[in-house]
Amino acid sequence: MASATSISVLLFARVLLSATTFVNGQNLDEQLWCVPKAGTNNQALQANLDYACGSIDCMGIQPGGSCYEPNTVKDHAAWAMNTFYQSLGKKDSDCDFKGTGDLVVSDPSPPGCKFFDGKNITGTSGKRWCVPRDEATDQQLQSNIDYACGAGRDCKPIQQGGACFEPNTVKSHAAYAMNTFYRTLGNQHSECNFKGSGKLVSSDPSYGGCKYL
Fold it and tell me: Using an 8 Å Cβ cutoff, are 194 and 145 in contact?
């Protein structure tokens, strides 16, 4: 017959197990970070860096950013890959990077640099805004305005007399329309794609009397 002590231990273990969330065998209560696999070459790391920074704000690894040092492709790729993974909801597939990404349980943050953990990010609490990519053309941006405003979003602020009409440029109007579209559709990363011309940033693009959602 099992002793009272062993029964209590078993019951306690069951309580702990029931309080832990598992999906496809993964413990969702466990904090994970996305980093490059050991041995990944610089060419692949640079490709990962370019891909991730095409969708997220990589100011943190720009000169003067808190994670610019160590200034190596590997360190910058680690920061970008992890921020991409955390920002998209911590799905395993978002840390694949064509087989060059790896999930780890140890915080990879180097001294003076805090890797995003999906919970907090300095000054924004993880909030993101959708804006045009730097290389987006006026033709693409006008198409984005037409698409976003034609989908029922409120674009009155970028019409003449509106709080966001100035500066009266395609890029500025597109930024407002794209972000409004993204925010009102539930902050889904896919809603900021705009055929590759949109990206997410952690800095509020609002200015003067023009307030972004």
Answer: no
Helices and strands in the chain: count of H runs, count of E runs:
5, 6
AA identity, residue 206:
S
pLDDT digits (tens, 9 = 90+) for 31-69: 899 999 999 999 999 999 999 887 777 878 888 888 899
Length of the chain (residues): 213
76 CA to centre of own chain: 15
Measured between alpha carbons, how far is 213 from 206 in angstroms, rounded to an integer?
Answer: 9
Read off the pLDDT of residues 146-170 as tens digits, 9 standing for 90 and up. Answer: 999 987 788 999 999 999 999 999 9
- Those residues whose C-beta lies under 8 Å from the C-beta of residue 70, and which sit 6 or more positions away, are 110
Single pTM value for the model: 0.54
What is the C-alpha to C-alpha distance for residues 56 and 65, in angstroms, rounded to an integer? Answer: 15
